[in-house]
Amino acid sequence: MFHYFAEPLIIDHAKNQFVYDIDGNEYLDFFGGIVTVSVGHCNETVTAKTREQLEKLQHVSTVFATEPQLQLAKKVASITPGGGALRKSFLTNSGTEANETAILLARMYTGSNEVVALRHSYHGRSAMAMAVTAQSSWRIHDTLPGGFVHSHNAYCYRCPFGLTYPTCDVRCASDVKDLIQTTTCGKIAGFIAEPIQGVGGFIVPPKEYFKIITDVVRQHGGVIISDEVQTGWGRTGNKWFGIEHWDVVPDIITAAKGLANGLPIGLTVAKPEVADAMKGVTLSTFGGNPVSTAQAKAVIDFIDENQLMINAAETGGYLQGKLLELKEKYPLIGDVRGMGLMWGIELVEDRVSKKPAVAETARIMAAARDERILIGKGGTFGNVVRCTPPLNVTKSDVDQFIERFDRAFAAVCEPALRR
Ligand code: PMP
Questions:
Q1: Does residue 202 have its Cβ closer than 6 Å to ligand 1?
Q2: CA distance 262 to 247
Q3: What is the pTM of this model?
Q4: Nearest to 227 by CA among 219, 235, 216
Q5: Is 230 in the pocket of ligand 1 (CB under 6 A)?
Q6: Mutation test of ligand 1: which of 257, 263, 377, 384 has the most ligand atoms closer than 8 Å to its C-beta?
Q7: Is-cis flag, bond preceding 166, omega within 30?
Q8: Which three-class secondary structure state does DSSP give residue 227?
Q9: Among the four 146, 238, 343, 402, which has the fewest Cβ within 10 Å?
Q10: 292: nearest Cα among 68, 63, 22
């Protein structure tokens, strides 16, 4: 758990954009509990509504419907892509379960088994979710169920075809047709992908990528599953869901993390005809828990009422500008990419070989902690720093963050490596 540091950092409490350790040290949180604290720690407006629910009803199980569950499902249905095309929700406790549900649904709806996923993806830690995931270190090989093939992702910084956008004609996307025709029976259950790969290192595809793949997948009988566990609820700026930036209306969306600002929740929402294919007993003891769903509804309302999707785009654009200034200063930074308030900084030993700067990334993590900022680490090679602050951070929070982040880089980079 505490793999970055020799000494564990023990957290005592948190408020808004700040986290405090047991010694009372204050940290500026630019990771938001792994892309989960979407509206700030212990957000007062949200917590007041949750507290009210805690005193009213805490549990009855999915055997009964509850008001918070219904209110959440109604709100979700009103904001899904395609003017509310996805209208039926199933609630669980995690992103992993949300994806399990989505894949079962795709298989039941289509009557097919095979699913196309992307290389460098992360979809969870159950056996099936690991089989969908395509980062070797996150899979426990020899235990994984079959039925999944993995296509090339749009990792433009390290193009799998050695090409450059846009002259590449988005070859990684058109390759999906070949993948389906050569490695599956030709009739697939679906395609699952993150609109921006999260654990993979915030890999942002070109704008045509998902549209090309969607057409091919539908021609082969499959549905589109958008895993919005990291990209949902305004994180990418101006839109509720990441997939909306790519001009695709998916058939199923999965979500978790930021939806309930830290309480456990998983959501699978689908077009009605797809959702109705779910047959059999669908009990989840904690799924749709009144407290989690009340908090989730309060989170969405808070994002809506405070226009945090717009703030994510504007403050995120400001953060992007500042990160690009750091890139000018430190050759260790090979790539800065992201959207909204989701930014990855890929570190390389040099910009020609692009060799992943794994040791330096670990040192940046430690230096950031010394500077009292919280950031994340990711990427298939462990060399991408990830910044995902709460959606209500301000430009002055960004200034404070950048000042400290700059000092962290200065501490790690030898003078010769600075411009
Ligand atoms: N999908 C994505 C895109 C994720 O980032 C994660 C978690 N990192 C999951 C699924 C799994 O979610 P959980 O950890 O809540 O099971």
A1: no
A2: 29
A3: 0.97
A4: 235
A5: yes
A6: 257
A7: yes
A8: strand
A9: 146
A10: 68
